[in-house]
Specification:
The complex is a heterodimer of chains A (244) and B (807). In chain A, 38% of the residues lie in helices and 28% in strands. By secondary structure, chain A is an alpha/beta fold. Chain A has one domain (3-243): Rossmann fold (3-Layer(aba) Sandwich). A six-stranded mixed sheet of chain A has the order 6-7-8-3-9-10, with helices on both faces. Chain A is globular, with a radius of gyration of 18 Å. Chain B is built from 22 helices and 22 strands. In chain B, helix 3 packs across helix 7 and helix 11 (315-355) runs antiparallel to helix 12 (370-396). Classes of the chains: A alpha/beta (244), B alpha+beta (807). The interface between A and B is medium-sized, with 32 and 28 residues.
């Protein structure tokens, strides 16, 4: 497997009312293609900030970030936006669907920001991923007409529509009941099996347990980086079942 | 207790947001002040009861002849005055400039010729002496006059012995019989009152003289009954005299108007409604802006309101709590507007009375009064309703559950977004309408200020007068008097030239060798009868000759035409000696061209080029008229230039009736330019304020809308939208509102333009309306798009991670 993401001594500092807060403190990290990484830690430890940096929603104060072999920490806003529209998929805790757009339109959104795609291509792709998350039958509904679990499945579809190199999920099950949370986690596992790279922020130890690799943060630093034995076993079992 | 707490809380919020408070207050004071000032000014000018006892029952008599505003004729009054059962009081008067001679020079005062009962009608008696009675109007009576308090003070130093004094009025020694109280200038601006003689009133029926009428209706009779009775009586009398004297057929209708409304030719109501509509539009704009700013505040506090509701606050408590901010701002704005408008009205009072030579109508008193204060309260309440109550009501009726629940902010923002979009569209519509209407009046003002007249009034004096038809009934007699007067004027060593000038009007012309299917096909050309040399007033002779004393009534009728007419109808030809037919006083007259003069501005070429319309000059010795405008040019720096005329007039006939006293010929133009300048400034100022309001409003609305969508911007950015894509989204949305608002305004403007074009008989070319529309569309689009671009630009600068966390 090749390395998809490399962080070298990346820090992020916020300045509020002349008080400097270092949210990320010289983190170095590599994520390989096809990995399913769970990022956990206490509240305020910098998980979401790290995810924002990985998703190019923010830029690091110091250090270097390389995505798919390209240094992205010094890119302009528009260059970062272009990478987000083509190579990154986001899933948020609070779904973040646009209420004025239908389910289909929400899913189409990342592709509308790419140039050279026809409306038909965009619609076909969006319909395909909606079918994949079993939300095709609700494509003309508005987000407010869906349950929380359905909204999150739509959000996952939106994250998948641009065939991203990595899916970044920030507490994707945080706003869901256990049944819907389980469905979303199973969806992630399926995507992982299909080769997707996923980085998920989670509080929940059980959810973190289902990833292939587990990172733990404390006070802006990575304090633990371990392969997840249970997930490895599960994967082996899945392969055994597939081979028969 | 709770109210006090809410009030204190609202005050704290306002103090904590000084920029918001100042901006909201500024917008509101502007809107309220413009509306209040316009109302007070128009109300005082048009609707306020006359400041005399029983002023509310005083009516002016207007006679509409075939729908045109006119007055009573003397014979009509004499015939009907004793037969009307619906009137308690009824009389006539006439206004004229009166020359008061003091030693070798004189002064002009506006005077009224009145009859017995006039002063009783105005419920005012002299402070010294007596009023005019019936004997004073009898032919041969000793000339008498009442004078105003001002004249008494200025000319007689307030002497108690004034009744033993004489005064020279229009060259005639006149006994002063009374002094009217201070401030009395009834019926309008008069300062001297003389008897209206029976002889003048009882002139022959073909006398053109009109008289102003006044009346009071008997109690128990309504206005319509009185008007109907008077209309019947006037019509019957006129029809009778029309047969006797071969007068034109006219349908007459009498209306009893207030003196103020009569002054505006019964159009005061239209002007009042139009100007009030414009100022109310500005107030509405201000209310929309303030309402939106308050709405934005209430949306910011939506969660707080939801928490209060969840804790058990009833709707009325929520509404009242949210309204306090608006109530405080509107109330403070109302009070400050009253103070501002009070000062502006006081200034207007001083400015108008010092600017107008007559001091303006006696009822024109501007200042803060009860009605204006009452209207200030009404406007403030309207403002509170529109800008405080409605946003508070809306905010208090939110979906509490949805607001408190996480992740569903969209449901609320969708509704707010719709309101914001509607408000921006409404703003664009209102401002575009104001600007389009304003552009017409601004253009008129600009045109009139910079108009090229085609003449030269430097050192030229003018006077308007009527030759008394009862004394000089024949045309020959009138011409002889005019010639005598002009001859006496010419003897003065300071005189350079003199010309009499009688504007006949637009006449139908038939050119030789051309066929006309109907009268409407014949060209309409401005026609003026003159005696004297046109070069006196800077209209140069281009070819041929000027009129001479030989161009008189029994000779071949002659004409001088303008260059534009010669070029239009006989291009490349020599026109001297050619003839055409012109319709004057319903009679076709064949005239021969003896001269060509330079072009002159006339009403039909006012809004185009000076050569757009033509002029025909006829010899005043062949087309006589009792009404004349005399223009005479004096040497530069001549002293007492006005006295030159009066000396000549008194030497000719002191009974010549001065309609407008001697003044510099350019005085009226200068006044017109000054008033147009004022109008232009007011229009520009109002338009600018409206545009400023729109900018502030649209900026505020867009900023609010963008702020509400910050989270959405974050999502879009997260999925890859570039800065340009986000900006484009906001600008596209703004453009949609702009197009709808402008479209509606242009639709309304088209309707107004069609009506205006027809009403002004095509005074502006059609392309003018298109030009105005394009200018407003381009100007407003730039301003609106700029107002949308600025907050949008700021919003996209936010990092997506920050935007996603935005609450």
């Amino acid at each position: 497997m090749s390395v998809l993401i490399t962080l070298e001594k990346v820090s992020k500092t916020f300045l509020t009312d002349e008080i400097e807060t270092r949210a990320i403190n010289e983190i170095s990290l590599a994520i390989e293609q096809g990995e399913y990484v769970a990022l956990s830690g206490q509240s305020g430890c910098g998980k979401s900030t790290l995810l924002s940096l990985l998703g190019l929603l923010d830029s690091p104060s110091t250090g270097q970030y390389t995505l798919a072999g390209k240094v992205v920490s010094t890119l302009t806003r528009n260059q970062r936006a272009e990478i987000r529209s083509k190579e990154i998929g986001f899933v948020f805790q609070s779904f973040n669907l646009i209420s004025d757009l239908t389910v289909l339109e929400n899913v189409m959104l990342p592709l509308t920001y790419q140039s050279g795609l026809t409306k038909k291509v965009i619609e076909d792709k969006a319909n395909a991923v909606l079918e994949k998350v079993q939300m095709g039958h609700r494509k003309n509904h508005f987000p407010s007409q869906l349950s929380g679990g359905q909204q999150q499945r739509v959000a996952v579809a939106r994250a998948l529509v641009n065939d991203p190199k990595i899916i970044l999920a920030d507490e994707p099950t945080g706003n869901l009941d256990s049944t819907n949370a389980e469905a979303v986690l199973q969806l992630f596992e399926q995507l992982h099996r299909e080769g997707a790279t996923i980085c998920m922020v989670t509080h929940d130890a059980a959810s973190a347990q289902r990833a292939s690799r587990r990172l733990e943060m404390f006070d802006g630093r990575l304090i633990k980086d371990s392969a997840n034995q249970q997930q490895t076993t599960n994967n082996v079992q899945a392969i055994d079942v597939a081979v028969g | 207790m709770f109210t006090w707490l809410d009030f204190k809380y609202a005050l704290r919020l306002l103090f904590n947001a000084p920029k918001f408070t100042a901006m909201t207050l500024g917008v509101l004071i502007g809107g309220l002040s413009i509306s209040l000032f316009t109302f007070s000014f128009l109300y005082s000018t048009v609707y306020k009861p006359l400041p005399i006892t029983d002023g509310d029952t005083a009516k002016a008599v207007a006679v509409f002849e075939n729908g045109k505003y006119r007055y009573l004729r003397g014979f009509e009054y004499l015939q009907i005055k004793d037969s009307l059962s619906s009137l308690a009081e009824f009389g006539v008067y006439d206004n004229a400039d009166v020359r008061v001679t003091v030693k070798q020079s004189g002064k002009n005062y506006i005077g009224s010729y009145v009859r017995a009962g006039f002063f009783e009608y105005s419920r005012t008696l002299p402070i010294i002496g007596r009023v005019i009675n019936a004997n004073d109007s009898v032919s041969g009576a000793v000339p008498v006059a009442l004078i105003s308090y001002d004249i008494w003070q200025n000319e007689y130093q307030g002497s108690d012995d004034v009744l033993n004094e004489s005064i020279i009025l229009n060259g005639e020694i006149t006994d002063v019989i009374g002094v009217m109280p201070e401030g009395y200038r009834f019926p309008n601006t008069s300062k001297i009152w003389l008897p209206l003689s029976d002889e003048v009133l009882d002139a022959t029926a073909d006398n053109r003289g009109y008289f102003y009428g006044f009346a009071r209706i008997k109690s128990g009779v309504n206005l319509a009954q009185a008007e109907q009775e008077m209309s019947q009586a006037v019509n019957q009398t006129y029809q009778h005299y029309a047969k006797l004297y071969d007068l034109p057929q006219l349908e007459k209708k009498v209306k009893l108007l207030t003196f103020q409304m009569a002054q505006t030719g019964n159009d005061g109501g239209i002007a009042f409604a139009f100007l009030m509509s414009v100022s109310m539009l500005i107030l509405l704009l201000a209310c929309i802006n303030v309402g939106n700013l308050l709405l934005a505040r209430s949306i910011e506090r939506q969660k707080e309101t939801a928490v209060r509701a969840a804790l058990g606050a009833k709707t009325y408590r929520l509404v009242s709590q949210l309204m306090w901010e608006g109530i405080i701002i509107a109330s403070v704005g109302g009070v400050l507007s009253v103070l501002l408008v009070g000062a502006a009205l006081d200034y207007t009072e001083v400015a108008i009375h010092s600017w107008l030579p007559s001091g303006g109508s006696f009822w024109w008193h501007y200042g803060m009064d009860g009605v204006t204060l009452l209207m200030a309260v009404v406007f403030t309440l309207i403002t509170i309703l529109l800008s405080a109550f409605l946003p508070a009501w809306r905010s208090a009726h939110q979906d509490v559950n949805a607001t408190l629940r996480d992740g569903t902010r969209g449901a609320q923002s969708k509704k707010s977004g719709r309101i914001s979009r509607f408000l921006v569209t409404a703003q664009v519509f209102l401002v575009a309408t104001l600007m389009l209407i304003g552009s017409i009046s601004g253009y008129i003002a600009h045109k009139l200020i910079n108009i090229e007249m085609g003449d030269d009034y430097q050192n030229v004096m003018s006077v308007r007068f009527t030759i008394p038809a009862n004394k000089y009934p024949e045309s020959q007699q009138q011409i002889a008097l005019l010639q005598s007067l002009m001859s006496k004027l010419s003897q003065n060593p300071s005189l350079v030239g003199v010309i009499s000038h009688n504007w006949i009007g637009e006449s139908r012309v038939m050119l030789d060798g051309r066929e006309y299917l109907s009268d409407d096909d014949k060209p309409l050309i401005d026609t003026v009868a003159i005696v004297g040399n046109t070069e006196t007033i800077g209209i140069d002779l281009v070819a041929g000759r000027q009129f001479t004393h030989l161009d008189k009534i029994d000779r071949q009728k002659v004409a001088i035409i303008s260059q534009s007419m010669a070029q239009r109808y006989w291009p490349g030809e020599s026109v001297l000696g050619k003839h055409f037919s012109v319709n004057v006083n319903d009679k076709n007259e064949e005239v021969f061209i003896v001269g060509i003069v330079s072009n002159r501005m006339n009403p039909r070429s006012m809004f185009g080029k000076i050569s757009d319309a033509d002029e025909i000059y006829l010899s005043g010795l062949q087309f006589a008229d009792p009404f004349q405008i005399l223009l005479y040019k004096v040497l530069p720096n001549s002293q007492d230039a006005d006295e030159i005329f009066y000396q000549a007039m008194f030497a000719t006939d002191r009974n010549i009736e001065i309609v407008y006293a001697v003044q510099e010929a350019s005085a009226n133009r200068n006044k017109m330019r000054e008033s147009m300048n004022l109008m232009s400034n007011i229009t520009f100022g109002t338009g600018f304020f409206a545009l400023l309001l729109a900018m502030v409003g649209i900026y505020g609305l867009t900023a609010n809308s963008v702020a509400q969508r910050t989270h959405e911007v974050g999502i879009r950015r997260a999925v890859g939208a570039t800065d340009q894509a986000i900006l484009k989204m906001f600008l596209k949305q703004g453009a949609k509102q702009l197009i709808v608002g402008l479209g509606l305004a242009l639709l309304l403007f088209s309707l107004i333009s069609v009506v205006f074009h027809s009403f002004t008989e095509g005074i502006f070319p059609v392309y003018f309306y298109f030009t105005q529309a394009i200018s407003v569309v381009v100007g407003l689009s730039v301003v609106v798009m700029f107002a949308i671009y600025m907050p949008s630009k700021r919003a996209v600068k936010m990092e997506p991670s920050t935007a996603l966390r935005y609450e």
